[in-house]
């Protein structure tokens, strides 16, 4: 069953770089430019991997997750950006007696730095580094998977990326390591592969790799194919007919399509429409998620104008 690894497949992957100047693409926001937007998404699954066993569960039916996320990106300089996001998440199961949850989830803050960029005859090549932290904003219940809205774990991550662009065609590859803090649950004992007498759950770290390629004209017209692979570095399998647990061993391989289109209502307005569709084709202790997202972002230049 899906446990919303790294907060709703991240609401950080859910966005999956849907758009531009995010923590999974090679684009940078120009100095003194601010980009903000709202993204709405839906994630559904009715089959999941219990360990490596692919099955469904009539006590759950279809697990539905809806997300509304606000995002901001500010260009401190042409080479250094700050990105923030906060999702509101609602879950629901179509069968059984388990009730869904809803509420604000985890706020995330990311620093994005292009430390190398150079034009060659064959392409423009850039290398980027990212540092991210996240923390819960509400006291939601984490030990209620798969209907919890998140993990309620503080996280810190680092990502390295290479981006190649030849004319309007590009290729981007990155890898990210995330460490997660302990989670406090509302019981004093639980079983993993052994009995543990504590209300503290030690969370395994997470390794994520991402590859994307496609057509990119500036930062406003983008069509791309995305592959994403996530796995925890530790954990254990869901026991047969049991509920998932926070520290399960989770793996997921996903493919998706992203687009971003400018909306020139009054000339170059700075408004864009973006969208994403993603599906999970392989996993372990995860739901076979099918994700659709759409939203709007607006970018403005806040450079001080001379008299």
Give the arrangement of secondary structure elements:
Elements: H1 5-8, H2 11-14, E1 33-45, E2 47-50, E3 53-56, E4 63-77, E5 80-93, E6 102-104, E7 106-119, E8 124-136, E9 155-166, E10 169-180, E11 183-184, E12 190-191, E13 195-196, E14 200-201, E15 206-217, E16 221-232, E17 251-263, E18 271-284, E19 290-301
Antiparallel strand pairs: 1-4, 1-19, 2-3, 4-5, 5-6, 5-7, 7-8, 8-9, 9-10, 10-15, 11-14, 12-13, 15-16, 16-17, 17-18, 18-19
Determine the strand fraction and express it as a percent band.
over 45%
Helix content: under 10%
Number of domains: 1
Q: Round the Cα radius of gyration to an integer and report it.
A: 20 Å
Instruction: Label the structural class.
Output: mainly beta
Any idea what the shape is? globular
CATH fold group? Porin
Q: How does the major sheet shape up? A: 12 strands, antiparallel, barrel
Question: Would you identify the CATH architecture?
Answer: Beta Barrel
Top-tier CATH class: Mainly Beta
Helix-strand topology string? HHEEEEEEEEEEEEEEEEEEE
- Uncertain spans: 1-19
User: What is the tally of helical segments?
Assistant: 2
- CATH homologous superfamily title: monomeric porin ompg
End-to-end Cα distance, whole Å, is 60 Å
Q: Taking strands numbered 1, 2, ... along the chain, how are they ordered across the largest sheet?
A: 1-4-5-7-8-9-10-15-16-17-18-19
């Amino acid at each position: 069953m899906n446990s919303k690894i790294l907060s709703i497949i991240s609401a950080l992957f859910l966005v999956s770089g849907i758009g531009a100047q995010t923590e999974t693409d090679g684009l940078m926001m120009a100095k003194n430019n601010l980009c903000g937007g709202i993204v709405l998404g839906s994630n559904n699954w009715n089959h999941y991997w219990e360990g490596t066993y692919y099955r469904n569960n009539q006590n759950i039916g279809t697990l539905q997750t809806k997300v509304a996320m606000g995002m901001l990106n500010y260009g401190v300089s042409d080479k250094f950006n700050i990105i923030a996001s906060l999702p509101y998440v609602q879950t629901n199961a179509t069968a059984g007696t388990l009730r869904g949850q809803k509420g604000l989830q985890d706020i995330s803050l990311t620093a994005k730095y292009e430390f190398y960029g150079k034009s060659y005859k064959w392409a423009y090549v850039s290398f980027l580094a990212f540092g991210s932290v996240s923390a819960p904003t509400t006291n939601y219940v984490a030990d209620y998977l798969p209907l919890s809205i998140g993990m309620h774990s503080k996280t810190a991550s680092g990502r390295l990326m290479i981006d190649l662009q030849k004319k309007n065609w590009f290729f981007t590859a990155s890898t990210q390591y995330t460490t997660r803090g302990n989670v406090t649950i509302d019981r004093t004992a639980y079983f993993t592969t052994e009995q543990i007498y504590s209300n503290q759950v030690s969370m395994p770290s997470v390794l994520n790799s991402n590859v994307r390629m496609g057509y990119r004209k500036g930062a406003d017209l983008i069509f791309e194919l995305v592959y994403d692979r996530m796995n925890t570095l530790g954990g254990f399998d869901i026991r047969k007919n049991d509920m998932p647990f926070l520290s399960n061993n989770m793996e997921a391989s996903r493919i998706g399509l992203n687009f971003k289109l400018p909306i020139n209502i009054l000339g170059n307005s700075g408004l864009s429409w973006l969208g994403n569709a993603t599906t999970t084709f392989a996993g372990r202790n995860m739901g076979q998620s099918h994700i659709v997202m759409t939203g709007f972002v607006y970018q403005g230049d806040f450079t001080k104008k001379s008299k």
